[in-house]
């Protein structure tokens, strides 16, 4: 059977990190007209098309199935060229403001650690770090064995937002909009990773740094740490998606107080309003005491026990429940359920007659 509709390759790329996980490729779809029709597409796009094929075949029109499917998935990015967003153009602009790095370490435990690393500027985001972050998120989107992610700042402080030197240089409205769309895309993709993510907040998380904490599923605060949306002091509002996410996390009343009052959120206040999910033990001099990173890994480990496909499925159903209207979320949940039902972990659990005491 021929495939009647080929979605644009860049659209496929955008969705490929979500879809292969939802509809794993079956070898039985290879070797017919479907494959030959798609042979000229890059492998990644062909994988997505193969993965999508059961959905396309079930539909009376392939275009309709594709459209519905895209609507139903949580897409990676918010902005694309139809919004006047040109990723390459803004990438070039941002690379003109170098400094610092975003470091990624993937561990065999299935936990990756992403470090905002620009300590001489309190881990402020230079332009090249924004580009780095996008690249590291891309790495994580393709990490099949991943289960969890910890986002931390280097040298015991989280992040002081945008590098003010870069901000000054691109303070014209056009460049500001481009940077805003670039960072919204990246942080949205970060939150939508099929990994359970934690922001480990030590020291200060200010401005864009506070926004970054909201792009993780959870926030753990060190005893002396502070999260502060300082944007109003800068004559601004959050632009990296931090306001929208903050409302989801703490509710609109609290969000209004935090933004309107530029309130300093310490661990106690953070727990009270639900911005913090846990507080780390204070600095301990004695030998063998856990570092904040070890404490965060331990905290996260209870939520990521089990095989990666199951943990990733857990994140996907929660993500769709968080982001989609109920009927769409229910259908996505069905699709994700289909990826684990009868899978190795499910069969093993059934064979072992496990009891949940
Ligand atoms: C676009 C708006 C928004 C967004 O993107 O969403 C933003 O994020 S705008 C940035 C918001 N953040 C700030 O305004 C933070 C400004 N910095 C401070 O308030 C203080 O530096 C601090 C973070 C509270 C730390 O104070 P302190 O402990 O006293 O250290 P120093 O002030 O001496 O800082 C050390 C060093 O770091 C430089 N620094 C700090 N933050 C930034 C920054 N965001 N951009 C660039 N540089 C930053 C600071 O200037 C010092 O450098 P030197 O003077 O060269 O030592």
Can you describe what's shown?
It catalyses: (S)-methylmalonyl-CoA + H(+) = propanoyl-CoA + CO2; (2S)-ethylmalonyl-CoA + H(+) = butanoyl-CoA + CO2; (2R)-ethylmalonyl-CoA + H(+) = butanoyl-CoA + CO2. Belongs to the enoyl-CoA hydratase/isomerase family. It is found in: Cytoplasm, Cytosol. With 357 residues, this protein is α/β, with parallel strands linked by helices. The chain has 16 helices and 9 strands. It has helices at 9-15, 19-22, 33-38, 43-58, 62-72, 87-95, 127-141, 164-169, 173-191, 208-213, 242-260, 267-273, 292-301, 308-323, 326-340, 344-351, and strands at residues 101-106, 111-117, 148-153, 196-201, 204-206, 218-221, 226-228, 264-265, 278-279. The strands form 2 sheets. Strands 1-2-3-4-6-9 form a 6-stranded mixed β-sheet, sandwiched between helices. It has a 3-stranded mixed β-sheet with strand order 5-7-8. Strand 1 and strand 2 (111-117) form a beta hairpin. It is globular. Mean pLDDT is 83; it is low at 1-74. Bound molecules: ligand LP2KCY5N. The site of ligand LP2KCY5N has 22 residues, from helix 8, strand 5 and helix 10.
Radius of gyration: 21 Å
The largest sheet, given as strand count, sense and whether it forms a barrel, is: 6 strands, mixed
The CATH architecture of the largest domain can be named as Alpha-Beta Complex
Structural class: alpha/beta
CATH class call of the largest domain: Alpha Beta
What is the number of domains?
2
Bound molecules: ligand LP2KCY5N
Q: What's the CATH superfamily of the largest domain, by name?
A: 2-enoyl-CoA Hydratase, Chain A, domain 1
Helical percent range? Answer: 40-55%
Global morphology: globular
Number of strands: 9
- Approximately what portion of the residues adopt beta-strand conformation? 5-15%
Query: Low-confidence parts lasting 5 or more residues at pLDDT below 50?
Result: 1-74
Span between N and C termini?
Answer: 50 Å
Q: What is the CATH topology descriptor of the largest domain?
A: 2-enoyl-CoA Hydratase, Chain A, domain 1
Give the helices and strands as they follow along the chain: HHHHHHEEHEHHEEHEEHEHEHHHH
Discrete helix count? 16
GO molecular function: methyl/ethyl malonyl-CoA decarboxylase activity
Subcellular location: Cytoplasm, Cytosol
Protein name: Ethylmalonyl-CoA decarboxylase
Family: Belongs to the enoyl-CoA hydratase/isomerase family.
């Amino acid at each position: 059977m021929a495939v009647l509709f080929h979605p644009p390759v860049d659209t496929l790329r955008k969705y490929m990190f979500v879809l292969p996980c939802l509809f794993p490729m079956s070898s039985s779809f290879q070797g017919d007209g479907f494959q030959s029709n798609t042979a000229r597409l890059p492998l990644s796009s062909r994988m997505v098309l193969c993965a999508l094929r059961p959905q396309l075949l079930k539909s009376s029109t392939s275009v309709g199935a594709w459209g519905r499917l895209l609507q139903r998935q949580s897409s990676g990015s918010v902005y694309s060229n139809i919004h006047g967003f040109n990723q390459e153009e803004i990438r070039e602009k941002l690379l003109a403001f170098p400094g610092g790095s975003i470091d990624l370490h993937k561990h065999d435990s299935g936990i990756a650690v992403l470090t905002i690393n620009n300590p001489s500027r309190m881990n402020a985001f230079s332009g090249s770090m924004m580009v780095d972050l996008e690249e590291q998120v891309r790495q994580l989107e393709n990490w099949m064995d991943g289960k969890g992610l910890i986002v931390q700042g280097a040298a015991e402080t989280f992040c002081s937002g945008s590098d003010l030197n870069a901000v000054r240089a691109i303070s014209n409205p056009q460049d500001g909009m481009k940077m805003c769309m670039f960072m919204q895309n990246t942080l949205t993709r970060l939150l939508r990773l099929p990994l359970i993510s934690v922001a480990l907040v030590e020291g200060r998380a200010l401005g864009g740094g506070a926004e970054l904490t909201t792009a993780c599923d959870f926030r753990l605060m060190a005893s002396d740490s502070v999260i502060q949306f300082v944007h109003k002091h800068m004559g601004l509002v959050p632009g990296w998606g931090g306001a929208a996410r903050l409302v989801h996390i703490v509710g609109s009343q609290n969000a209004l107080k935090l933004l309107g009052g530029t309130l300093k959120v310490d661990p106690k206040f953070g727990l009270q309003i639900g911005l913090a999910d846990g507080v780390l033990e204070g600095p301990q001099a004695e030998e063998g005491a856990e570092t904040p990173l070890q404490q965060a890994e331990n905290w996260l480990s209870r939520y990521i026990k089990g095989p990666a496909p199951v943990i990733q499925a857990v994140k996907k159903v929660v993500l769709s429940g968080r982001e989609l209207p109920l009927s769409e979320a229910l259908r996505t949940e069905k699709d994700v359920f289909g990826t684990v039902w009868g899978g190795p972990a499910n069969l093993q659990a059934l064979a072992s007659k496990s009891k949940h005491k």
